[in-house]
Design a protein that fits this description.
The protein is mainly beta and 388 residues long. The protein folds into three domains: 23-159, no CATH class; 170-242, OB fold (Dihydrolipoamide Acetyltransferase, E2P) (Beta Barrel); 253-376. It is 14% helix and 36% strand. It is built from eight helices and 20 strands. An eight-stranded antiparallel beta barrel has the order 13-14-15-16-17-18-19-20. The longest helix is centred in the N-terminal third of the chain and has 10 residues, at 50-59. It is globular and about 75 Å long.
Length: 388
């Protein structure tokens, strides 16, 4: 198990699996609740159940992880199968590893959707527990695979609820200018989508406090989507960040521009859901210690920034950089002891899109597992993130 080569960090958008089996066989998995994975129930164990084998095969392509889930669980340390709000949870670990090598399966009683987790050890920011659905690695969380229902990451729980079900919530990034509304709608964030907050909602005041009406606001939320129109009703706020304020001409250009540029980006929207922190473009010009840019696996200290006046519309800026391989070189890069000189031209296009040297980038949600530690560790943090 320890000798296999496991891929590193991945990020997060999760997809719902097609149905495996039928409603007539749903009870077959319900019956395993409270049993050990190897317990015989009506002639078959949970590990031998056709719905489970089909779900694991559909969720993950790696034969080694399939082997761990379906075979090595028998020789591992496993608890009883738990019932959660999002399905049945099986967890086990390899005793020879002292618990570092662990795996889990979260599966609907119907057999689908299902999400598989595997971890060969956790080192925050380096390696964690990888989650798989529909044959792809879709997220990494820097904690072991869950053995309790309350340790299942919120994003995984959200994607385990099929969006076709009535009142199902979906993850969304609402990006735009908040406007106070009347009647049953208390606030509307007008941007790529119209995200609304009901007038009587408990989340209305906190969002109002964080996002003034004259400021661009970014809200990561669970929403109730209306498929008939591009309107989303916010039911749960995961994070909220005010992006721009009225610029102070006396403030350094770098920090004024940072109110618009700062964020984590990918080459396209789908890229926000794949790969890890070193497969993103992370930009923080507002840092008190000096701006920084992580261009995928390259880290650059921002020495100077200048350009057009920052504004909600289009403007461009030029950064003078000194680039190395890792954030730990920051002080040496600023002092000229290491690294190489470089420059980059940034263009702010609208709320979700910037470009660097002509390469278009889409703003991604801020998640603990998908954001470099240097970006989220400095106080004050750029907004806040859910504890996923």
């Amino acid at each position: 198990m320890n000798q296999r080569k496991w891929l590193a960090v991945a990020a997060a958008t999760l997809m719902v699996l097609p149905a495996v089996g039928s409603a007539d066989t749903a009870a077959a998995l319900d019956r395993y609740a409270g049993r050990y994975p190897w317990d015989d129930v009506d002639g078959a164990s949970f590990l031998d159940a056709p719905l489970v084998e089909a779900a694991v095969t559909a969720a993950v392509e790696d034969p080694g992880i399939r082997q761990a889930l379906l075979v090595e669980t028998r020789d591992g340390v496993a608890g009883k199968i738990l019932v959660t709000d999002h399905g049945l949870l099986m967890h086990a670990f390899d005793p020879a590893s002292g618990g570092d090598v662990s795996w889990a399966l979260l599966i609907s009683p119907r057999g689908a959707p299902a999400a598989a987790c595997f971890s060969s050890g956790v080192e925050p920011g380096v390696q964690g527990a990888d989650w798989y659905m529909e044959g792809e690695r879709i997220a990494t969380r820097y904690e072991p695979c869950p053995s309790e229902a309350d340790r299942i990451p919120p994003a995984i729980r959200a994607r385990m609820t099929p969006t076709v079900e009535p009142e199902a919530l979906q993850w969304a990034l609402c990006y735009g200018y908040p406007r106070t509304a009347s009647g049953e709608t208390g606030m509307v964030i007008k941007g790529d989508y119209h995200c609304s907050i009901p007038a009587g909602s408990a989340i209305l005041n906190p969002v109002k406090a964080a996002c003034r009406e004259d400021a661009l606001c970014k809200v990561e939320a669970m929403v109730l989507a209306d498929p008939r129109r591009e309107r989303r009703e916010i039911r749960q706020v995961l994070s909220v960040q005010r992006v721009d304020e009225v610029p102070d001409p006396a403030e350094p250009y770098r920090r004024r521009a940072g109110r618009f540029y700062d964020g984590v980006y990918a080459r396209q929207a789908r890229g926000c859901d794949r790969g890890g922190a070193d497969e993103r473009v992370s930009l923080d010009l507002s840092r008190p210690s000096g701006g920084a840019l992580q261009w995928f696996d390259q880290y650059c200290a921002v020495l100077t920034a200048e350009g057009e006046a920052p504004a909600p519309g289009e403007f461009h800026s030029t950064l003078q950089l000194r680039c190395g391989d890792k954030p730990e070189q920051d002080a040496a890069l600023r002092g000229g002891a290491t690294g190489r000189q470089a420059s980059a031209v940034l263009r702010h296009e609208h709320g979700r899109t910037i470009s660097i040297d002509g390469s278009a980038l889409v703003r991604c949600p801020i998640r603990r597992a998908d954001t470099p530690r240097w970006w989220i560790q400095r106080p004050p943090f750029n907004g806040y993130y859910p504890s996923d």
